[in-house]
Structures are given as C-alpha cells and as structure tokens.
Amino acid sequence: MARQPYLQINVNKHNAGRSLSMAQIVSAVKEQITLEHVAPGCRLPPVRVLAHQLGMSKTTIQLAYDELVAQGLLESTERVGLFVASDPKPVPVAPETLVVPPPCMALPATAPPAPARPPTEGMLNLGSVFIDPALLPHEKLSACFRSVVKQPQAYAAYHDQGFPPLRQAIAERLQARGIDASAEDIVITAGSQQALDLVCRVLKQKRIATENPAYSHGKALFEMNGLETLPLPLDPFCGIDPDVWERQLATSPALLYLTTNYHNPTGYSYTTSELQQILGWSQQYGFGILEDDWGADMLSFSEFRPCLRARGGSGVLYINAFTKKLLPSLRLGYIVGNPDVTPALVASKVASCLGLSTLMKAALFEFLDRGYYETHLKQLQAELDQRYENCLAALRDTMPEGVQWTTPGGGPSLWVELPAGVDRERLRDRLAQRHVTISLSDNAFFNQPHLNGFRLGYAMLSQDDMRRGIEILADTLRQEIARR
C-alpha cells in the first residue's frame, strides 16, 4: 500500500533560515494547520525529513511534534506517522481571510475550429486540404532523420531564430524566385500558425484586415488574441470588390493578412492587377502586409507566380511552410521579416517557446541540401495535376445545372458553389449517410456566409475514389435541387 504524501510546511517566515526553537516549530505548524484549514487526516513530514529541511536535530523536531500531540492538534499512528487530528482546536480566523472560491475562467465566445481528423474508415472525404500520404517522401525523410540522429552532439543546442543552415537554404530558394530575403530575415516557426501568432503578439495596434472567408485557424487566432478584425469579402468566381476593399482599408488597419496562392478554403489565387492594387493601397493608407504563400510550391508545371514580397520588397512580411507538402506532423514553417521587424519576432518566439527542435530542423535542412525537395515537388506536382484534371472531368460529367466550381489550376482544393436554396447542412448529412464527407467551412466566415458552397479537396483521394465520391455528390445534389 502506498504511503500518503506528507504536507509541505513553510517555516521560513519565522526565522529566515536560522535555527528555530522547539516553541517556534510548534507555532509554525499550528499556524499552518489552523489558518490554512488543513483537512483532518493529512500526514505531517516525518521527523527525519523536517530535521533535514531545517538543518536541526531530530530531537528538537520530535519534542515539537510531541507538544502538538499533547495540544490535540496531531494524532500519532504507530509505524505510520503523524496526522492532523480529526477535530483540531481552531484558532479564530478573521472573516476576510477565509478562502473564497475563484470565479470561473472567462473563455472566448468563439471556440477555435476543431483540428483536422482522419476520416472514418470507409468514408470518402471530399473536404480534406491535405495530400494523400502515399505521395509524401517518407523514405527520404527517414534517411535524413537517421543521418541527423547519428550525430546528436552536433545539434545539442537550440537556436532562437532557427537552425542557421536551414535559414540560409530557405533564403537561397526564395532569392531564386526573385524574393528579397536573407538568412538574417528568416525566423523558423512551428508551421505557419506560429508565425501568425508571433505577428499577433508584436502588433502595437491590434487591428487587422483579412479575407472573408478567412483561413479558419488564423481567424480563431486573431479572435483569441483580442484583435479587431476587418473582414474583406472574397468571391472565388469574381475575386475582390475593389470599392469595398478600399473603403475598409482606408480606415488604416495595422496589417492586412491574406493568402495569395490557393486561398483556404476557396482555392482562389489573386490576379496580378489585384496584387498591384493591394500594394498601392498599402502605400496610400499606411498599413502593413502579411502574405501567406503556403501554396507557392504547389503550382503546376513547376512555375512560380510573383508574390507580394517579390513585388513589394522587404516591407511585406512573408509566411510559408513545409507542413502539407512534406509531412503534416513535421510542423515546420517560417516567416520572412526585415531588419526592423525580425528582432521583435524573435523576441516573441523566445518568450513563447524559447526554440524549436534543432534535430527536426537539421533533418529538413538535409532534405533540402540533398536535392530531395526539388525532386519531390516535381513528382508531387505531376500527380496533383492528374488528380486535378480527373476532378474537373468528373465534375463536368456529373454535376447538375446550376452548380458551379472554380478552376484554380493547382493546389489541393477548389470551391463548389451550390444553387441558391440548397441546404448545405442537409446535403452534408445526406452525404454522410452515403459514406461521403464534405467540409462546409462556416467557421471561416465572419457572420453569415455570403457563399453557398464548400471546399472540395482532390489531393487526398485516389482518382477512382474521387470520381466515385463526386458521382455520389452529384446524385444527392440532383435530389436536393428537385426537392426545392
């Protein structure tokens, strides 16, 4: 039988480390038992433990305990120990010192979106933004991890800004795309989510503009950090409304956060003219820009579109991540700042987590340095192109009149828009009965959704499973349209 833990007793305030008399020990223990409302039956420290703690003789401690037993405050059980008596005589306590239960902790009004979970076995998941694990480079990543683990002494220290060789490799990749970046500008983060959190922490003016619908986990982060958000309506079929966007941005938020390639959840990529307008508004109204370019490496034919950082220079903060393209559990990304901003981002990171695993970052560096990443991207892009074409063909072959979908040209997902009046929640529930799941993304919208559709992810399922899922979707949609 395990012995009951003993009470921790604070006697320092009575003599600050100097030797105590027997009477002082009695007074200290009595005070803790009565004033702090110690429950009857609690065990006292053994004589040898308290003697060691105070640097005193066991005889003095034993005498103090004997006196407390004599006063009725303690009870002794042979070979078990000393315990607080079942009815210790209380010392009068002033009402203001009584323990008062704390109030319930205030929680955010809006709960964060639920984390992505693998679909139930046997279900066809049409809503995932993740890539089929069979397409990810498990063996090559494993080889890099094995190489790093063999020399742990080389990676014993962590780096607050991030593993220097990895930052240098990322900077060189960005420079090859025409992006103004140096290793000193880059902060390695736990995915793009931590990069967003660092920016939230360092913003002096807690006011940020972002797309509506927004990246749902980013939206939740802004709300939980108490940022005022200005939603800017985005329609994946029409793009941005320049008049509405300019009116909102003219109120001078501190920052505009947007995803320039393959926006989540709509799959939209900004046009060249829209990017130019955004840069112009930034200069005119004095707000900063935070660009999330997570989809840049997923463009078809290994092409890159000039991003806002490439067009606007180092004044544009830039986020990217390796998470979805290599391994979801890798959780490594980065933010590119400039000499004025990066020190604050590093300080924010140090305050929140000190640093990330150097072993993880060293393994990723090896993956880049060996040329594995470029080879992987070419193979991944080719496979995603085939899945994209298969998805478009299935939609065109099966969808009823009135249903629309976007053609992003790459990335992992597109947007399907339903005819007005089709109940999306009812459609989702009916599809679940037929073992197909969709994601409605309602938590990505500010207030009432202005789109009546959902994200369709084509990167997770095989081509055969994707076509089968779309056929079930089309059949169910016909029934729902007819029901109207």
UniProtKB/TrEMBL annotation:
<dbReference type="InterPro" id="IPR036390">
    <property type="entry name" value="WH_DNA-bd_sf"/>
</dbReference>
<dbReference type="GO" id="GO:0003700">
    <property type="term" value="F:DNA-binding transcription factor activity"/>
</dbReference>
<dbReference type="InterPro" id="IPR015421">
    <property type="entry name" value="PyrdxlP-dep_Trfase_major"/>
</dbReference>
<dbReference type="Pfam" id="PF00155">
    <property type="entry name" value="Aminotran_1_2"/>
</dbReference>
<dbReference type="InterPro" id="IPR004839">
    <property type="entry name" value="Aminotransferase_I/II_large"/>
</dbReference>
<dbReference type="InterPro" id="IPR036388">
    <property type="entry name" value="WH-like_DNA-bd_sf"/>
</dbReference>
<dbReference type="InterPro" id="IPR051446">
    <property type="entry name" value="HTH_trans_reg/aminotransferase"/>
</dbReference>
<dbReference type="InterPro" id="IPR015424">
    <property type="entry name" value="PyrdxlP-dep_Trfase"/>
</dbReference>
<dbReference type="GO" id="GO:0030170">
    <property type="term" value="F:pyridoxal phosphate binding"/>
</dbReference>
<keyword id="KW-0663">Pyridoxal phosphate</keyword>
<dbReference type="GO" id="GO:0003677">
    <property type="term" value="F:DNA binding"/>
</dbReference>
<keyword id="KW-0805">Transcription regulation</keyword>
<feature type="domain" description="HTH gntR-type">
    <location>
        <begin position="19"/>
        <end position="87"/>
    </location>
</feature>
<protein>
    <recommendedName>
        <fullName>HTH gntR-type domain-containing protein</fullName>
    </recommendedName>
</protein>
<dbReference type="InterPro" id="IPR000524">
    <property type="entry name" value="Tscrpt_reg_HTH_GntR"/>
</dbReference>
<dbReference type="Pfam" id="PF00392">
    <property type="entry name" value="GntR"/>
</dbReference>
<keyword id="KW-0804">Transcription</keyword>
<keyword id="KW-0238">DNA-binding</keyword>
<comment type="similarity">
    <text>In the C-terminal section; belongs to the class-I pyridoxal-phosphate-dependent aminotransferase family.</text>
</comment>
